Amino acid sequence: MPIDLSPDPVAARLAERTAEFVRDIVLPLEEEHRGVVRSEDVRTHLQDAAKQAGVFAPHVAREYGGHGLDMRGRSVVFEAAGYSLLGPLALNIAAPDEGNMHLLEAIATEQQKERYLRPLASGAIRSCFAMTEPAPGAGSDPDALATRADRVDGGWRINGRKWFITGADGAGFAICMARTSGEPGDRGGATMFLVDQDNPGMRTVRHIETLDESLYGGHIELLFDDCVVPDEAVLGEVDEGFRYAQIRLGPARMTHCMRWLGIAQRAQDIAVARASDRRLFGARLGDLGMTQQMIADNEIDIAASRALIRQASWELDQGGRAGQATAIAKTFCAEAIWRVVDRALQICGSLGVSGDLPLGRFLREVRPFRIYDGPSETHRWAIARRVLRHHEKTAGS
């Protein structure tokens, strides 16, 4: 089967309009707010502007107000939006809402789609995905899931503690992963539940102070304490939560890469402009060999990241799980994007360290990506296991 990594013309045009929207509308607001927004008024303003520009919700089906792009189409639009820290928020493609919309479209009932997906897709509400737990609970190893859900009359009672739940502050609902069979360490036995914001059994314990600050709604520790939900709150089938998580996690890893690649490109643009203008030792900074090497290495990392993202996106568009391709792309991109931003800051010298440029902020924001959505070490372990299994299978046959 021939592989076509290029987006269709519709997506390419939408990416151009997105780049223009980010440049004219979003970047001035990012500069005003130093890349961090906590105001619903600003969020609403950005999203209303994106709707007016015709670039809002590129990933959602048209019946829910979006453009219905496939993963290859998203790759170019999300990168264009990611050129600003606030671009994904404006287009309603920021984590975790974007991944939750993808999941709801795939497995929610029609009633659940009307109640949760439609307002989420329109930006009327936000959401969070409550899976990660404090040690020794679920993290890199999801089988360690300790939060439990037990049957009660007409529904389920959830008990457990979650942390690093991005966007939970002010979210209209949570998708909570809880164990409905087995014990921590057992494979399988998880179920996803839709929990409304006003459920008295779900409450915020604290905001977790983190290196990054730009993700809207923060990173929150949540407590589920005798949190009772009805049977219709089950998302998908009971005990199938880990299988459904794969529907969300592979594409979500790629969309993270797409958005952060936009920041890497912006960091490179800033560095190239500085290298072109700055003069020292009787020459332009960009004429010096070590500067040229950093610029070239940045171009290589950006191009390689883009190619890996599109390869994995193509595999996802063919209907496959693309586990190996998404793990490779996520691991490489998380590290390459850090290298690009770090080199860009180095090229800009003291100006890069200062608050006069956003590179210091970018460096803080991209560093956790090597941990979020699975640390690089976990992905490398999984990549190697697949290679070894493939070798053993082919050698045996």
Description:
With 397 residues, this protein is of the alpha+beta class. It folds into three domains: 9-94, Butyryl-Coa Dehydrogenase, subunit A, domain 1, CATH 1.10.540.10; 127-235, Butyryl-CoA Dehydrogenase, subunit A, domain 2, CATH 2.40.110.10; 242-396, Butyryl-CoA Dehydrogenase, subunit A, domain 3. Helix content is 52%, strand content 15%. It contains eleven helices and ten strands. The protein has helices spanning 9-33, 40-53, 71-81, 87-91, 97-107, 110-122, 241-277, 289-317, 323-353, 359-366, 376-396, and strands at residues 127-130, 148-152, 155-166, 173-179, 190-196, 202-207, 219-230, 234-235, 279-280, 283-284. It has a four-stranded mixed sheet, covered by helices on one side. The chain has a four-stranded antiparallel sheet with strand order 2-3-7-6, with no helix packed on it. A two-stranded antiparallel ribbon has the order 9-10. A hairpin with a 2-residue loop joins strand 2 (148-152) and strand 3. Its cofactor is FAD. This is Acyl-CoA dehydrogenase. Pfam families: Acyl-CoA_dh_1, Acyl-CoA_dh_M, Acyl-CoA_dh_N.
